[in-house]
Description:
Layout: H1 21-52, H2 54-65, H3 67-94, H4 101-130
Helix pairs in contact: 1-2, 1-3, 1-4, 3-4
GO biological process, one term: tricarboxylic acid cycle
Main location: membrane
Keywords: Heme, Iron, Membrane, Metal-binding, Transmembrane, Transmembrane helix
Amino acid sequence: xxxxxxxxxxxxxxxxxxxxxxxxxxxxxxxxxxxxxxxxxxxxxxxxxxxxxxxxxxxxxxxxxxxxxxxxxxxxxxxxxxxxxxxxxxxxxxxxxxxxxxxxxxxxxxxxxxxxxxxxxxxxxxxxxxx
Length: 131
């Protein structure tokens, strides 16, 4: 008997599946979760700077105020909000709701749009309150 599966992978992977919104948002949820570890190190850096003295704290604040620092903070805030919305989506599933294909696709798309809108809103409010 011939081995008909010899040229096929042992298990499916991303090259086999067609990307769909729920799959992409699941992957993004994992990526943003990993990015939040990096962001936690940023918070730790800021707290250590605050405890180390005014000069180091001012330097960290200066760095976070540069274009690179703002891009990093913007990405961190997006990752935080995207991961939060993805967590709410998973919580809804844990409660037994939203398993219909059309609805879960809409929620996946809404997670992306919502995270972008919330991030922009948070930054706009931050700049308005700051000045």
